[in-house]
UniProtKB/TrEMBL annotation:
PANTHER family: CONSERVED PROTEIN, GLYOXALASE-RELATED. It holds the Pfam family Glyoxalase_6. Residues 1-20 are annotated as: Disordered. InterPro entries: Anthracycline_SecMetBiosynth, Glyas_Bleomycin-R_OHBP_Dase, Glyoxalase_6, VOC_core. Residues 151-266 form the VOC domain. It comes from Streptomyces durmitorensis. This is VOC family protein. Residues 1-10 have a biased composition (Polar residues). Coiled coil: none annotated.
Length: 268
């Protein structure tokens, strides 16, 4: 599940790598209570936090052992958007990628805009309604750790069916695909330069109506069951109990504001 960490590119002094376009490079959460959200994830994953970039308003970067792994921002009080983790795909030219999104029947909800010296970004929506980010790195290359306990491990698009939406992402980011051949499992792996970097799961009528199409971020943990108990202790709740998954033991949970994510203990 953590193959994306093998992406080649330029590394910075903190271990982050300038990822090939189309590779997930960052995950970010916009919440109403910035301080309480930091407390939750700090206690769950052992994160510490640094502020900035200031161009994004109240925003902090989560650090794991001194390495940046994720971002958390604060929604304005009058914004009632779904609270959700959002993956950002790497781009060499966010303006051109945004134009490709529009050309392929997606929409741009935010940007493109500069995030100071860190880089340039946009928030997009695919034709099925799933939200994702686009990141053109400058000083900030993205997550410096991937697949380590407390760090992002994988991103999966959960949607109605894969066929149409995969064509959208292929046109925008140039992915190749590898389908899982199964009569009852609509699942595709997106690849960059021959490496799996994300997946698309078509759920048909089983797609949750209250969420619709969405990207799911997986965070690696040392012990899924213990982490699930910790989520509940900290005020979150269980969406899908711990179970055996395709790539290891997984559980889907939500933080106190309702942001859903998956805990995974990847098979070595």
């Amino acid at each position: 599940m953590t193959e994306a960490r093998g992406s080649t590119g330029q590394r910075d002094g903190l271990g982050a790598v300038r990822r090939t376009p189309g590779t997930p490079t960052w995950v970010s959460l916009m919440a109403h209570g910035l301080a309480t959200t930091q407390e939750f994830y700090g206690a769950l994953f052992g994160w510490e936090f640094q502020p900035g970039p200031e161009q994004l308003g109240p925003y902090v970067r989560a650090l794991l052992d001194g390495h940046e792994v994720a971002g958390i921002g604060q929604l304005p009080p009058d914004h009632h958007l779904p609270i959700a983790w959002t993956p950002y795909m790497a781009s060499d030219d966010v303006d051109a990628t945004a134009e490709a999104v529009r050309h392929c029947c997606g929409t741009i909800g935010v940007g493109p805009l500069d995030a100071g010296p860190a880089g340039r970004m946009a928030i997009a929506v695919d034709p099925a309604g799933a939200v994702f980010g686009i990141w053109q790195a400058a000083e900030h290359l993205g997550s410096a750790l991937v697949g380590e306990p407390g760090a992002p491990a994988w991103n999966e698009l959960v949607t109605h069916e894969t066929a149409g939406v995969v064509k959208f992402y292929q046109a925008v980011f140039g992915y190749t695909e590898e389908a899982v051949v199964s009569a009852d499992f609509d699942y595709v792996t997106l690849q960059v330069e021959g490496r799996p970097v994300a997946s698309v799961h078509g759920m048909g009528q089983a797609l949750p109506r209250d969420r619709g199409a969405h990207w799911m971020t997986y965070f690696e943990v040392a012990d899924v069951d213990e982490s699930v108990d910790r989520v509940v202790e900290l005020g979150g709740h269980v969406v899908k109990p711990a179970r055996a998954g395709t790539h290891g033991r997984v559980a889907t949970v939500a933080d106190p504001e309702g942001a859903v994510f998956t805990l995974v203990r990847s098979e070595s």
